[in-house]
Write a structure and sequence with these properties.
The chain is mainly alpha-helical. It has one domain (40-164). The protein is 34% helix and 7% strand. Strands 1-2-3 form a 3-stranded parallel β-sheet, with no helix packed on it. It is globular.
């Protein structure tokens, strides 16, 4: 009962009530003040596609699974996959996602040196693999999260970068 009350209370609060689920309504949201001056930020896409870490030149490896399944680029992705991973499916590569070169302090230094004012870590890509446990991701074929197969999660580093989010 308490959960239901809190849900209804927050749903009716001014911060929720001022927008409707339409583009017209959402386009009325003000741009956050910190973002107005943040001319440069970094989005990090990191997931199972980092295991093969390969794509035909000029493309993004985040789409590896899609290209593998659709036999794109005249089968180049399939050929690469079979040569390097044999009969393993894309989903079986999750066991090899160890992030053994993950150095969060080095990343933070590099991001700071770049002049970026914010960082966004893509926590779940279109392949369904989440970087941490998620009931929504568990509905997908991945059914596991990066924290269950990769390195232990460090405390977030916010002392060097203006915004993490």
């Amino acid at each position: 009962m308490l959960k239901k009350f809190l849900f209804l209370f927050f749903l009716s609060s001014p911060c929720f009530a001022q927008y409707q689920p339409t583009w017209e309504s959402l386009d009325k949201r003000p741009i956050p003040e910190w973002y107005q001056d943040a001319k440069f930020g970094i989005f990090i896409h990191w997931g199972v596609y980092a295991v093969p870490a390969w794509t035909p030149k000029g493309n993004y490896s985040e789409w590896y699974q899609y290209w593998l399944n659709t036999k794109a680029y005249n089968g180049a992705v399939v050929d690469y996959h079979q040569k390097n991973f044999g009969d393993l499916t894309y989903y079986q590569l999750v066991d090899q996602f160890k992030a053994d070169r993950y150095e969060p302090d080095e990343w933070a230094k590099l991001i700071e040196q770049s002049g970026a004012k914010y960082v966004v870590l893509t926590s779940k890509h279109h392949d369904g693999f989440a970087l941490w446990p998620s009931k929504d991701a568990s509905r997908s074929a991945m059914n596991r999260a990066g924290m269950s197969v990769g390195p232990p999660a460090p405390n977030p580093t916010t002392r060097r970068i203006g915004r993490v989010g």
